[in-house]
Design a protein that fits this description.
By secondary structure, the chain is α+β, with helices and mostly antiparallel strands. It has seven helices and five strands, in the order αααααββαβββα. It has a single domain, classed as Methane Monooxygenase Hydroxylase, Chain G, domain 1, CATH 1.20.58. α3 packs across α4. Pfam families: PRONE.
Length: 259
C-alpha cells in the first residue's frame, strides 16, 4: 500500500523506513527540469496551474533532505500520537474529536509554530527545516494505513468464485498528498535559493546611511517587522528578473495546491 508521501506501508518498521528513504531519495530526480529563469521555463510556468504540471520542474540537485531523530524526539512523537489517539481530549473522556480533524489541527499548529513568525526571504535554518520535515512525517504516517474497501473476487475452497471486500489505498489521498509534499519541497528550495541577494533586512525600522528604506509608513505592530532594504541604485536587472520569476513560480505553486 502506498503511503501519503509515496512510501510503501509494511509490517516491519525497518522495511517501512527503508522504503520511505528510497522514495524520498528519488524525489529530487523525479522532475525533468530545474528551477531557473529561462524563457522556456517561464513559458512552462504560464501553463502550469495544477498538480498535473508538476513534472515540468524539479528541485535543485542538492540531494535528499535528511534529518536525525534523538531520544527526546521519540518522546515528543509519543506525546503527539497520544493526543491524536485521544482526539485532543487528554482526560480520556468522550469529548475527543475525530482522528482526521485532530491531524488537521496538529498540522495547522505545526505550520503556525514554524512559519508564523517567518518574515524574511531567506533560507530556513537546518534546525527549523529538520523539525518541519520530521514532524510532518510523524503526522502523515497514519495516512499510510488509510484505506477503502472495494469488491474483489476470490476462489473458495469448494472451487466457487466468491465476492469479497478487500482494502485498497484511498486514491484521493495517495495521489494528491505526494504531489502536495513535492510542492512543499519546492517552496523550501525557493527559500534556499535566497542567498547572495541584493536586498537585506533591518530590525525595528532602522535606517543606515546611503540606503533607501522600503515601505515608508508603519502602523500598529507593523513597525516591529523586519524592513526590506535595497541599495541606493536599486537592484540589478538580473536580480529583478530572478525575483519576478520566483514570485510567479510561488504563485503557481499556490494555484496548484488549491486545484
Amino acid at each position: 500500500m502506498s503511503g501519503a508521501d509515496g512510501c510503501a506501508a509494511t509490517d516491519s518498521p525497518d522495511e517501512d523506513a527503508s522504503s520511505c528513504s528510497s522514495s524520498k531519495d528519488a524525489l529530487g530526480s523525479s522532475f525533468s527540469r530545474c528551477l531557473s529563469s529561462s524563457t522556456q521555463d517561464e513559458h512552462l510556468l504560464d501553463e502550469w496551474d495544477t498538480l498535473n504540471g508538476l513534472h515540468h520542474f524539479c528541485i535543485n540537485g542538492k540531494g535528499p533532505i535528511t534529518y536525525s531523530i534523538d531520544v527526546s524526539d521519540v518522546e515528543a512523537m509519543k506525546e503527539k500520537f497520544a493526543q491524536l489517539l485521544l482526539g485532543e481530549d487528554v482526560s480520556g473522556g468522550i469529548k475527543g474529536i475525530s482522528t482526521a480533524l485532530a491531524l488537521s489541527h496538529a498540522i495547522t499548529g505545526l505550520a503556525a509554530s514554524i512559519f508564523g513568525e517567518f518574515w524574511k526571504l531567506e533560507p530556513l535554518s537546518e534546525r527549523i527545516k529538520s523539525r518541519w520535515l520530521r514532524e510532518m512525517d510523524w503526522l502523515l504516517s497514519p495516512i499510510n494505513y488509510m484505506v477503502e474497501l472495494v469488491p474483489a473476487k476470490q476462489n473458495g475452497a469448494n472451487g466457487r468464485m466468491l465476492e469479497i471486500m478487500t482494502p485498497k489505498a484511498r486514491s484521493d489521498v495517495h495521489t494528491t498528498l505526494p504531489a502536495l509534499r513535492k510542492l512543499d519541497l519546492m517552496l523550501i528550495e525557493v527559500l534556499d535559493s535566497m542567498v547572495g541577494t541584493e536586498f537585506w533586512y533591518t530590525e525595528l525600522g532602522g535606517r543606515a546611511d546611503g540606503c533607501n528604506l522600503y515601505n515608508g509608513t508603519k502602523q500598529g505592530k507593523k513597525w516591529r517587522l523586519p524592513t526590506p532594504r535595497v541599495p541606493e541604485s536599486g537592484v540589478s536587472p538580473s536580480q529583478r528578473r530572478k525575483l519576478a520569476f520566483q514570485g510567479k513560480f510561488v504563485h503557481q505553486i499556490l494555484k496548484a495546491a488549491k486545484s
